């Protein structure tokens, strides 16, 4: 079976609890299935992804918003103001960026879907995922 896993980040190496959970899900699924992982890359695109699993990895660059950057890079008062803005005054999600707002995620998902549809049986192509 072909499985497309969408994740908020690339879990290699699995350092945090969320990354560990994603890694172990991928490990279990990839043992018996053809898995493609699409996730945001938080680091430079120059950083190689080292994956010991038989998984296709598609990295989608993510650029934090101005307030989010200020929360992590500014002085304590600027950081606190940005945190307050994101928590109480903004409708912008902190860690979630919808595909419509990140064209590269939408195009990566669409490209992957097209590649998969090319090898799906006709009966599968008619189903809505």
The oligomeric status of these chains comes to: single chain
Low-confidence stretches: 96-101, 119-129
How would a crystallographer describe the biggest sheet?
3 strands, parallel
Mean pLDDT: 76
Proper CATH architecture of the largest domain: 3-Layer(aba) Sandwich
Number of domains: 2
Instruction: State the CATH topology of the largest domain.
Output: Rossmann fold
Number of helices, where a helix is a run of at least 4 consecutive DSSP H or I residues: 5
Protein architecture, described:
The protein is built from 5 helices and 3 strands; from the N terminus they run E-H-E-E-H-H-H-H. The chain is an alpha/beta fold. It folds into 2 domains: 2-62 and 97-125, Rossmann fold (3-Layer(aba) Sandwich), CATH 3.40.50.2000; 64-95, no CATH class. The chain has a 3-stranded parallel β-sheet with strand order 1-2-3, with helices on both faces. Helix 1 links the parallel strand 1 and strand 2 (34-41). Helix 2 (66-73) packs antiparallel against helix 3 (76-89). The longest helix has 17 residues, at 103-119. It starts with a strand and ends with a helix. Mean pLDDT is 76; it is low at 96-101 and 119-129.
């Amino acid at each position: 079976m072909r499985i497309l896993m969408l994740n908020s980040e690339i879990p290699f190496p699995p350092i945090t609890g969320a990354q560990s959970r994603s890694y172990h899900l991928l490990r279990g699924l990839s043992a018996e299935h053809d898995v493609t992982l699409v996730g945001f890359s938080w680091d430079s695109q120059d950083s190689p992804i080292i994956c010991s699993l038989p998984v296709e990895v598609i990295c989608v660059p993510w650029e934090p918003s101005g307030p989010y950057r200020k929360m992590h890079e500014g002085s304590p008062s600027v950081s606190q103001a940005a945190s307050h803005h994101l928590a109480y005054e903004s409708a912008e999600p902190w860690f979630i960026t919808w595909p419509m707002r990140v064209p590269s995620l939408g195009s990566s998902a669409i490209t992957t879907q097209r590649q998969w549809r090319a090898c799906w049986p006709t009966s599968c192509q008619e189903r809505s995922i």
